[in-house]
Specification:
The protein has 330 residues and is of the alpha+beta class. 29% of the residues lie in helices and 38% in strands. Strands 1, 2, 3, 4, 5, 6, 7, 8, 9, 10, 11, 12, 13 and 14 form a 14-stranded antiparallel beta sheet that branches. The mean pLDDT is 90.
């Protein structure tokens, strides 16, 4: 019986030892994916910002500028692209909507971002765009890969339609989570006017005829939870200017928007809670279960060898019978 038990334990030891790397290197890349139908929104605010009054064409201080960012998974578009891409794809239809303190629209820029569901690497397909302009992204946008590393990444900037390094600046603690801090600086760059302008009747084409151009610069900051690759907090020191042309009269430039953009508190709390729960699921596949199965396999192997050694030990000899004759009673 000991011999049979040791063989059974040995089989389980081999099974769990093989399951450990299989779960980490085979199952994890296939199971840890961004859902194709994911929907998320984020509200950011720039308090005490500077905003251009298009009625007077003068910059003024305002109490607050609000930016609402939405990302909506397009399942049908993802299925069509997967047929030719040969991998799981996510299509996010995004919108960045900026409004002033009076609730009126300042700008709105739509995007379509197509990427690999596991690695977050961009996938190039028809429909990839920013504000109606076709683009071919390189680098990440919105989200870092699972198991983010302590290194620089390439990050796509929607305003300039270019990819630039975003630098790892160190590890910090953010509301109970270990996070990696990344920072990117976009120098002053000439960019296109949004297709939808804040004043009725004004179009990018009509502005271009005046000779006035739009310039943009930002310092982008992200605090990223490395296991999930999800930013738990973000900021931008954002600046936009209009320069030259007859639209500005005798002025060389005027500030269109300048402010320190930060995530709103309720969205920070929601994001941190969501990331904490998803972090546990990723750790189960990458750390907890693989190491647990490996340790369990080692324990079962040790127990199997111990039982095998016990089964091979010779049985204890029976005590010899006494040769002294039994006394006879009369």
């Amino acid at each position: 019986m000991r011999r049979k038990a040791s063989l059974v334990l040995l089989a389980f030891a081999v099974f769990f030892a093989a399951l450990s790397p299989l779960l980490r290197w085979y199952a994890f890349p296939r199971l840890a994916k961004i859902p194709a139908n994911q929907y998320q929104d984020m509200v950011l605010e720039a308090k005490g910002a500077t905003l251009l009054d298009y009625g007077t064409m003068k910059a003024r201080k305002v109490s607050k500028v609000t930016i609402v960012q939405t990302l909506k998974g397009n399942v049908e578009a993802a299925k069509q692209i997967e047929e030719t891409a040969g991998r799981d794809v996510v299509v996010w239809d995004g919108l960045s909507y900026v409004q002033g303190p009076d609730g009126k629209m300042v700008s709105k820029i739509p995007e379509r971002y197509i990427f690999d569901a596991h690695s977050q690497a961009p996938v190039h397909a028809t429909g990839e765009m920013v504000d109606g302009d076709p683009v071919k992204r390189t680098g990440i946008e919105f989200k870092w890969p699972f198991l983010t590393q302590k290194r620089d990444y390439e990050y796509f900037d929607a305003q300039t339609r270019t990819t630039n390094p975003i630098h790892y600046k160190g590890t910090q603690n953010f509301r109970g989570l270990k996070v990696y801090y990344f920072e990117q600086t976009i120098p002053w760059t000439k960019v296109a006017f949004p297709k939808t302008m804040p004043v009725k009747g004004i179009t990018p084409e009509s502005v271009a005829k005046t000779g006035t151009t739009r310039w943009y610069s930002t310092v982008r900051k992200f605090w990223v939870e490395p296991v999930t690759g999800a930013p738990v907090y973000g900021e931008e020191i954002h600046k936009e200017e209009l320069r030259g042309g007859t639209l500005l009269g005798d002025r060389d430039k005027v500030t269109a928007f300048a402010g320190h953009v930060k995530m709103r508190e309720d969205y920070i709390e929601h994001t941190v809670d969501l990331v904490k729960s998803n972090r546990t699921l990723v750790l189960l596949m990458t750390s907890y279960l693989p190491w647990g199965f490996l340790v369990l396999g080692a324990l079962l192997l040790a127990l199997s060898l111990w039982l095998e050694a016990r089964s091979r030990r010779p049985a204890d000899p029976e005590p010899a019978k006494s040769s002294t004759p039994e006394p006879v009673s009369a």
